[in-house]
Records
---
Amino acid sequence: MNDTSLLTVEKLEISYRKDGLLLPVVKDFSLRLAPSETYGLVGESGCGKSTVAYALLGYLSEHGVITDGSITLNGTDVRKLDHAGLRKLRGGDVAMVYQEPVSALNPVLTIGRQLREARLAKRDCSKADANDASISMLKAVQLPDPAAMFDRYPHELSGGQAQRVVIAMALLAEPKLLVLDEPTTGLDATVEAEVVELIANLGRKLGTAILYISHNLTLVGRICERVGVMYSGRIVEEAPTRQLFQQPRHPYTAGLLGCRPYSAAAGKNRRLATIPGNVPLPGQEPAGCSFGPRCQYFEPGRCDQLPGPILEAVAGPTRVRCVRRDEIVPQTLVPVSVAHRPKSGSSVIEVEALVKSYAPRHALRFGGKSPGPEARNANDKISLSVKGGEILSIVGESGSGKSTLAKIAIGLEEATSGRMITFGQDVAQVRARRRPLHLLHKIQMIFQNPDSTLNPAHTIGAIIGRAVRCVNGKQSAADIKRHVDSLLAAVALPPEFRHKYPHELSGGQRQRVGIARAFAGHPEVIIADEPVSALDVSIQAAIVNLLLDMQAHAGTTFLFISHDVALVRHLSDRVAVLYGGQLMEMGTVDEVFSPPFHPYTARLISAASGRAASGGPKSEGKVGQHASCRFFEQCHVRIDGLCDRETPPRREGSESHSVTCHHELSELAMQPILVSETM
Amino acid sequence: MSASLGAADATMVELRQNFFGIWAAIKRNPSATAGIAVLLAWGIVAILAPVVAPYDPTAIDFLAAADPMPSSSHWLGTDSTGRDILSRIIWGARTTYTVVPLSVFAAFIVGIALGMPAGYFGGWIDTLVSRASDIMLSFPALILYIILITSFGPSLCNIVIAVTLAYAPGVSRLARAITLSLREQDYVAAAQVRGETSLYIMAVEILPNARGPLTVDLCLRAGYTVILTGTLGFLGLGLPPPTADWGGMVVENGHLLSIYWHMTVFPCLAISSVVISCNLVADSLRGGRTR
């Protein structure tokens, strides 16, 4: 036993009670954390990583039980602590930051009051001292104007600001260990990059040990010195970050790394590497190695024998749980390249000066100032065209208006002004209800949320069958069944799925059904609104490949809406970058991204590789209302007096490339490179 | 795990789930099982009333009225005119089992038919329906019944209308609220963009997902309706005498409560048993349904 370690977890086993049985969800979990070390715990959902975090703080739900092992934190056995002891531990030696920052703050108390209480609860000091400590901590988490922040209420903060406050609150008790459970999920990419950088710096500066839990390998790689990869309740590989990224030793780690879309790989080969299959549910793990059925190095007779593999050291500090650890050097599966896609070249959707504005809400205000009623434009004079057979991606953060544009195209919203011509008809102000059926059936949509895309009351067969009947008119039951089966086969689902209900399917499978439904009537345009953002990494890749296959096969035009720059770079023909409802840049993938011209595009790219952009204020600006460049508040090359007064002109770089900026293209090309291209 | 599921198994799964998960929810909960048993028992009694009732419920027997206390010939005693209490309670179950389902279903049909479009379309339909229900709900229900029934006379049909008017606004509010949240679901958007009619979307995409809270509400309101018809009977607005009616029995004999308790207490127990059973079933459905 290493006496210098801050946290020692030995052979921890955690089970959940279900129907009177104890199902182990975390097994043989050992972890040693030195003071001020940063450790990343990575895994897909259902791997037990959050359960471990809760166990460390003695916070398991009433169904969870620690069935074996020990947790020693700073010399105290956490399992033996009573209620009062746990209270002292939480927020004392160890603090935790959760995923949802807004629900972690009490909406009726000011930020300052909440921070002060966090300090007073753990330190014996006067109110004034606590206030001072709070303000300096707000400064430490790089919030603008900490003194003013002190008097604000949680609802006045943006998501990124709220998460900074929560981190400040956790740090005020001067914990020795800070546990962060997916702290940036739900934040926009550029904000995420800033928060991640903040966490990495704070850890270094304050000497707090950090346990960072995430599904995102890239982010973990940015922060942590060591990384543990969890699969199905066990750590399968643990290694220093650099080694893990350079040479993963477990096939699962290699698979996870391979699933990430590589910007460098863009070009001919658009498919992503995948890991076949799903994470097994607790209680349904295969004998032996639980990754066995999904592993390309699986060897019958060895990998499926009991007891399963144990975590053993290979090559220095790296530890791997694999029977064949000394024989294999796992490589990522080489993806099969996709067939040539036909391109018609003529435009199928033509958007001209499209504006969608939402009327301001007249909320009741109790005294105080009320901002002048000003309509907010979700889409501000957007013009673009979508060509037949291409994949056009629309990139932007939340609030950029990308979903609004999609909703207008599909008829779920109507534009305020401007034109959107699809197949020769202006549909900008025509809702789906009033559109002719033949036009409706030419454009279909794939939705973001796998939980709500399918009606829980109907079987898969009924859902797809209804779509088939709707589009193709009267058909015999046998015809419909045949059609449904062929659609299920096209999305790689067995025909028995016809009888299943959505809740019996995994997220990835539900998304497949959603794709089958969208393709039921051979539409000419498919709009996919963040189709993979709610899925696990390994599933994401398979769904993206499926979409690419179906697109290539049917020659469908694709409008792909996403915030994931790496993914967009990987699969698109052309890209449109939106910010605050304005079209910032438009062109082919290479024209837009390598090198980036528009300052916002540059920032997006740097955020995608987990780096906060240098330069520019570190805050989320409000979207401007008057005539201005929407990005000016955050722009690092803005020209005061021009960018905030006048709408920037659209500059044509080439026939297909345009940038909306006050700077000349030649100046933009010379802008300081914010990031290196490597990931 | 799933690929091995045969067609027969799949049909079973489908059959089971088409029970709306109600049976599974009830099986797990003994108090709900008791509630269902009591409701079923009263139902059987109501159907078999002519067979199981020992006396004619309206037959006046002054000889028996001389000693109305429970005895071997009249198990629960008789009322002041010598009518057998047990027989009247048994026939009263018939009244209850006619009035309550009729009026509750009518209230739900009207409430859903108004509330769902209000929630789905919004706009002026919503304003109209919501304001109308506000007005109805702001009106003391009891006064409404008195006005209605005194002007049109007590009859089965008028009682059903009165209960429908009283409950439909509440049901429509619930239906509207559920529809408001369900219409934002992606599967509703998917149905809209493939050109389904609004009626289809409400009936097939939204209504099946609203059945959970609506069923719970239905059970609760069934319980209230038993009380309500009792109250109407008590106010003399129930079915006209000499029809056997639990509420009516309470009022007919209420003034004798201090001497002849049995005349009032037994009909009251009958009312309570049905109300409590309805609430038990509603509770188990609320707890058992996760979606």
Note: The two ends of chain B are 23 Å apart (CA to CA).
---
Amino acid sequence: MRHQLYRAFFAAAFLLLWFGPGISAWAQDSTLRIGISEEPRTLNIWLASDANSRKVLSLIYQPLYNRDPETLRISPWLAESLPEYDPETVSYTVKLRPAKWADGSDVTADDVVFTVNLIQKFKVPRYYSKWSFVREVKAVDKRTVRFFLKEPKAIFATRTLINYIVSRKEWEPLAKKAETQEKPLTALLNTKVDHPLGCGPFVLEEWREGTSLYLKKNPHFFGQGQSINQRKLGPHVDKILFKIYGTADVAILGLKKGKIDFLWWAIQPGYLEGLKDDEKVKVFLSEKSALYFMGYNVRKEPFSDPVLRRATATLIDNNFFVKRVLQGYASRMDSIVPAENSFWHAGNLPDYGQGLSRAERIRKASALLREKGYSWDTPPVDDSGEIQTPSSIRLPNGRPMQKFVILTPPADYDPNRATCGLMIQEWLNGIGVPAIARPMSFGALLQTVKGNHEFDAFILGYGRLSLDPDYLRSFFHSSNDKSRGWNMSGYRNPEFDRLAEASVSAMDPDKRQDLIHKMQQIVMRDVPYIPLYKPQVIEAVSRQFTGWEQMVGGIGNIWSLCRVKPVD
Amino acid sequence: MSKETRSQKSYTWQRFLEGWSLFYENLVGRIGLILLLVFGLMAVCSYIPPLIDPMYHPMTGVDPDVFRSTPPSAAHWLGTDNIGRDLLSQLLTGARIAFLVGISAAFMSIVFGTLIGMIAGYAGRLTDSLLMRFADMIMVMPSLLVVLLLSSLFGQLNIWIIVLLIALFRWPGISRVIRAQTLSLKERPFIDTARVAGASNLRIIFRHILPNVLPMALLYMTFRVTSAIIVEAALAFLGFGDPNTVSWGMMLQWVWKTGHMFQAPYWLLPPGICISLITLAFYMIGRAMEEVLDPRLRKEEQKV
């Protein structure tokens, strides 16, 4: 008996020793730990505008269509197939995949209809502009939905259908309650959502505010075990833990020490050397659809003059930013549409100072300005063609140019843009243009530039520029030159407006491409925005996980998080 | 020049020489002074590198052949930052900024503190209570936090605004000390004599009290320089400094934000060490001056 007891004890100990570490490793590995920079601000999908809330919500709520990681074309996600367009009725028909919400109820066409109606009824910011041209939405049957458009819109399939769908069951009571309030939209946006009901790969398990947020696997996820676009989906992890790190240094240390598995955070190039040498860490460099630019307030003097804008564009050395400020982990931009978006990017654009030395740039810019009637007491180029320190520039009407401020985000928000502002200040000073770069808190900067238009120039960026170039219209169409409108520069050009309006309705891709190219040529001729650079995304993961799906924008995407799994 | 004035001047000179010899005998004071002279030399030398080559301009000069942070070399004795700017030029300019911020903020706070302290002490009663309660209110405010808040409200602050803010938050300590001195001074016979002779209050304050509290004010100035430099460095490090100024705090912010904190010790350490040493220098000088001014702190054989 005693021997049997001993044997049982040793067998148990052996089993524990043999499988124990394995079990604990498995238990640990099945949780993917992601480091993020800040706490998500909300789980209310209609309010979420910060990157971290959207990262979490992108794993809970799902859109009808997603972009294929390779081709970047729209591909069915919650929808079963590509939308069918009927030119006669100007309508799109979308068939849904059999799918369930996380509570086990079916995702139906009614939910889609409800989502669109809610956005239209409340005019939800960020979403309304994408759905405003939809006249009616009808549920044809339980899994088929039909969208009737007011007029043909090319952006419907590429921009509108990639928005999230919410559950009627979750939002109908909340929307009804909001409607009874004095300000329904504000009430809707302020609705506290503790447990968002989605149909994505994960659902919220727990949010410990200030430290971490847990997601767990959604057993009803429609993609589980399915192949979409030849990619077999999981998720293969049981949980996702979002850990909040205040600073990049601590987060990177956490990654190196194995405290997190993925840093969902654009890493500064300076950290790269230390990460590349680490055997436990894998670094991904990805292209990004982005635009970092300097914009002018063209509503008022002196930048209402396109010649002055062209001269300053000549002085700005984009290669300096790419090579030095971003350490080569970026590419130069010569248009508002990134060159990598090859179908839409236009050729034959003015290259301003490209390839010129600093002295040559100053000569070219001062010649441009002198021709237009600008003058100096001491010009930047002397009679023998040598560069000298100039006096302050005078406008063509003889008045000295007033000091003007280039607003940039502060260095703690984006050191690169703050540095670019300083360099541009110095380059413009070199030709007697009295520029001062002033970093300003990001919220105040947006308020100044978008709200009251009381500014001279600014440096901003779009980190997630849509692949459809409809943003060209948003940025420069005169109808968007309004308070909180997207036309921050106040650019107005009837020729551009006409082309922009035509481009929205052009259903033939080649015709639309031609229009988009012409729009870029006009913008780059008049330069209300000077494109500066497009950074690469530097991301790092632990080698404990594999299956990351790299696409434009990095590895932090729904495909990756549906496919990533622990290394065996 | 009358005979009396001349003898008064020679007396002042005599007192200064006595004070100086006491200061010079103090090892701590000597070290502080030497350190300060080194930093003074650095500040003066900061004008030289940009004259040698424009690439040594601390803000805009970049080495055309350097595209990333490089360790010390013959061309760049302390190395370069991530965009190819010379770190030594930045460090030398940082010394200039430290003096500018430290001395001007400390001077301003001394002026505010001394004036308010003297007025409160001399006037007494309600004025004293009001001024001192106001000083208490300012004293308990977390100055760094308030400056940070102001900075985030009004955008990035100019270096002179930062100096003024530091001064505005750092005077109450001095005003308390000066008030205490004034309270004791105003009871002395020479003040009564002046009053009886018909001197106005302003004359008594500025002609009779001020010269007596000035040494104490100057002593406190050395301590205020230290705190002003630290506040400016902290502000700059946290990203709220004047972006057009190359200060040591700014250098630390750049090394941190560009991700070179653990990659480039030649960039991280010099500004950090300089901040420590310059504040130490002022502190050491302050301690030595304290001994000169307060005979109770001196060793027995030094007491004069």
Note: Chain A is about 35% helix and 20% strand.
---
Amino acid sequence: MAKKLLLDKAHVPGIRSYEVYRKEGGYRSVEKAFRLTPAEIVEEVKLSGLRGRGGAGFPTGMKWSFLAKPEGVPRYLVCNADESEPGTFKDRYLMEFIPHLLIEGMIVASFALGSNVSYIYIRGEYAWIADILENAIDEAKQNGWVGKNILGTGFNFELYVQRGAGAYICGEETALIESLEGKRGNPRIKPPFPAVKGLWDCPTVVNNVETLAAVVPIINEGGEAYAKIGVGKSTGTKLISACGNINKPGIYEIDMTISVEDFIFSDEYCGGIPNGKRLKACIPGGSSVPILPANLLLTTAKGEKRMMNYESLSDGGFATGSMMGSGGFIVLDEDQCIVRNTMTLARFYHHESCGQCSPCREGTGWMERILKKIESGKGEMKDIDLLWDIQRKIEGNTICPLGDAAAWPVAAAIRHFRDEFEWHVQHPDKCLTENFGLRHYADPIHVAVTA
Amino acid sequence: MVDEIKTFKVTIDNITIDVPVGTTVLNAARQIGGDVAPPAMCYYSKLQGSGGKCRTCLVEVAAGSTADPRPMPKLVASCRTTVMDGMVVKNITSEKVKDARAGVVEFLLLNHPLDCPICDQAGECHLQDLGYEHGKEGTRYEFPRRTFEKEDIGPYIQLHMTRCILCYRCTYVADQLTDKRVHGILDRGEHAEISTYISKAVDNEFSGNMIDVCPVGALTDKTFRFKNRVWFTKPVDAHRTCDTPGCCGNTTLWLRGEEVFRVTARKDEWGEVKSYDGKPGWICNTCRFDKKKTSDWTIEGVTKVNRHSVISQGKYEGLVMPKETVQEVMGGRAPKLLMNIHDESEVNDPKIQLSEINGPAHAENFKN
């Protein structure tokens, strides 16, 4: 059983309340942090090798050290709880069941960054969780963890929960800041980066819920001890939201040393695929990351076992690899249609594009229409090449990563499942009633032997 | 002693110039001029915060600076990227840029109605120019184009949402020129639209400048609507003493004969409003919509129009008719008239004015 740092107390009855949380050792990290200087805390986080858990995987300590610190200008910490990536629901679990863990992490992080007012921007659809968080903040305030002069250290700290209005784009950090300021949630053009000019033009750090929660065990156990868990540059533990065609969907905390195969088939985790079906494909890190067929998912192109960590999942680049992303692990069995799945994702990105820059505004809708055409048996061969060309012209040419996120799933689906697309074109009637099935997607990959 | 202005050296398409620190790549390229300047559909130098949205001005940065000569991984929006010392930029010399730009043009035209024949902007439309210079000859889009419900935004300005490319320029005008913005972007993605909330009329002395900044025919002048084509009218520079604070009074009148068809602000070579003493020459709605007589204005002379523009067609001073060469070729003999068509047929008799015929002309109309 892998070591658990975030969810070890998640099943203690009443952990949502302050009394139980405190009795179980909660808020220890704040006491410890106040004995350190802010710079020492940042150093500890750097040492831990913690990488942003929101999707991009940028080293958190590095991000914190980039924060500009001009005299007389307030700095802000914003928690990105706008968890909208299809397939990802780990932050929801953390906030719903152990809200104090996030608050504790935010107090420590705010102290380290010198933020006296911090915000939790939560997606509007999580309305009941916003209430849970606000209750927890009230409890923390009553017990002197939030407010003026915390624990007599002279550090003043206020924490607010802001509800979003239901837009995926507001999970992009600059769009989130715009929305937090009360404006339309359009991403800003970077540079300047939020670390220099963020919320109300002040230096701002935006971190994911899980990242901030992970600060608690880092301070408690020390950065070095945290870095020992995991492998290589994938340190600590990661929450995976497993869903799709598996026996036991849910949130799993892994230490990034297990293989993808074990994760899907072992009883400790997903428990295999229901109804005796075979594995066809998987999107390992939330809807934006490239989909992989079963063979490339379980072994890399080099023939090595693929592991559940940042490096191994991205091994082979986009040609034969994928990404850790936000940890939204979506498993597809042999009865699933890749064309339909890709169309669903394209529809999502079309619906969620903010409409600010041209390639994403126009391109996402175009891709969805073409995919719909292929899925309904009206596609032509040239449509597949056209799709490829459209995604290529969106990727990298937009203001924010939503354009890339819309392009990657389409690109990966065509790259790995082109024959399924072609089958749809060639069998316009059959594709409406039948599925392409597993075919060769789980066949072992021939690895060239180097002399 | 004069303070030396600090400058950076930047190389764009193999041409090196010195520009003041803080200049954007686009403005540096405009200083070089010609084809090196990337097209810009949303950036407007006189509107703070504009740019970055249309992605037509994407360029490749082959070297970030002398200090850090690494290339930038992605194409960058030149209108929002400031130059660094020793930066090397590729615009028309980069295949990547050309490819991406052709893509952006295709995206911009995807849902554009292409109703140029009935659009008042035709002839001075930036999207037409962009499509002509950087686009492909056909579209690969085969689905119905997006349409919007028509909306009335007041007596002076016509909004054609179907033609809009969402450059956001008009919202910046409303923010920066008028006291209160009453229009903005509603909805999102493909369905995002410029609108006034509950059709509230845009009513402000400077609202007309939205027409001038609109790169396409989405916002047009209602007083000029369907009256004429821009290439039939003759632009002249004119001015009047205007009492409206903030109005520069310098305009371009678009004439046909003595009749003033339209009044606009004066534009520079990039299609932007000209500056006077460093201040943008915005004009008020009184000048634009109410002063439609030549007697209201002091006319300075013909507006200089780029000779490549359709507006410059055949109506300029210094126009020289080509020399008649027939006599020279025939050794001084006058050409011999073999047959006068009007002796043989009464159709198209020059004595009959076609414009006086009610409806299409028939042979009957020419019977004496």
Note: Residues 230-312 of chain B form one domain.
---
Amino acid sequence: MNAISASLADSRTMVRRNFRHTMRNPLALFNAVIVPIFVVFLMVYVLGGAFSVGGNYVDYATPGLIIMTIGYGIGPTATAVNSDMTTGFINRLRVMHVSRAAVLNAHVFEIMLRTLVAIAIIIGVALLMGFRPSASFPQWLGAIAVIALTVLAIGWLTVAAGLAAKSPESAGIFGVPLMLLPFLSSAFVPADTMGPGAREFAEYQPFTSIIEALRGFLTGAPSTGTAITAIAWCLGLSLVGYLWARATFTKRA
Amino acid sequence: MNGSAIAASGLRKAYKDKTVLDGIDLNVRTGTIFALLGPNGAGKTTTVNVLTTLLTPDAGKVIVAGHDVATQTKAVRAAIGVTGQFASVDDLLTGEENLLMMADLLHLPKAEGRRIAGRLLERFELAEAAGKLAVSYSGGMRRKLDLAMTLVGDPQIIFLDEPTTGLDPRSRRTMWEIIRELVAEGTTIFLTTQYLEEADQLADRIAVLDQGRLVAEGTADELKRRIPGSHVRLRFTDRRALDAAARVLPESTGDDDELTLRVPGDGGVRSLRALIDRLDAHSIEVEELSVHTPDLDDVFLALTGHGNKEDSAR
């Protein structure tokens, strides 16, 4: 067996392992969707009436909720990556000559799978509550691409943070800023309605570009500039996460 | 291979200004159990990591299973199995799935993987729990599964980093039996332990590691012989007999509360007979007699000057 087919076989084995983790830990998926669903209700039925965003509020808020869902789904992966590192599981794999890529890719794959399922559930809930996207088929593909790239970026950052954390508990905390950042973006109200300071922060943080790009696709009015900025953020953050994960893996393992 | 499974010379490793390994030389013969004994922080795990290709030493040369660890990493990895300090099993997989995952990572054919997994589950008495998630296993079962996972690849040399730390006495004995069986089949075992009894029970040779240096190496008996302190302990039924014996054996030291007398001596048959004859000549009744040779705790104290971890913590 040559190196490439061996590495592919190992990747398959590790992906199968992580897939089983997802299936056997339904609580992780439940946690990923429960808070965003609550926020959908809160924003649409409780607070949304007070916001004037021009049009149906659920149409405005859903792209932000989709992105917010990502932050709620990453905790289990950060913890799992960290316990692989701290219990010596990764060392066991290294002694078996399993490639670094196989181990890390499988975790990123798992987080993407779980998060995309969670996002599908959230979109379903939003549709029930009156979300009426007006995207054409290619625009849907664009929206899915933005979502997938965002999950990829956050997935790699999560794996890196999981590798770098001292304990599974501290790895879990990594998700908290990602849960809060969408609130300081244009997810729920347009940035230009915010107070000074918050407005500038919201305008320039990556979640705003990503959410605006997604909103553009879903409402059938994509802006090329926003989409390019969003994709650039995603690719940049993916690269940072990937390099960070690689370096930490080599240093700690 | 010239009968040497592991040969290391001049190993050094430092983290920033902290020296962890300070010139370690090791030689482990094929088919034997070698114990690296030392307190927490002595450098045991670092040594294992260097010998198992996980860590590159700052200096020194390591040959494992006839291959250079630095340049023939893959060949070394194919010959060894490592069971780390913590049971590194996958909690969300069943015992059987854990073993099959190892078989897959070793690129064994499916049927062979199943056969090996089934055999190991039987052997380690895990067959009944094979379909349960590892998260539900007891500490002893996790360790057994951990070791079984290491054995899927049928390694020639097995490294066990503190294999019984945290186990109850019964699980510990089970683990010892398994280790003895492996050696009987021709496997070489390199184990680290902070339990003196464990090294005494299992190892053909013991190296004592203290603050990154080997302070002694030899068989358990050789190490024990390096220090004085053999004595015979006599226990009496009453104070009168104790006092009488103390007068007859002026070299002894007594303990009035325990009604015991400690008589220095090598515990050999000749000196024992002489001792009993002296007591008989004065018609002194002895309740109990026991011969004490120094244990490895005494050895450790004598070699390092600071005892094991409990002592140094005081």
Note: Chain B has two domains: 4-89+137-225, 231-292.
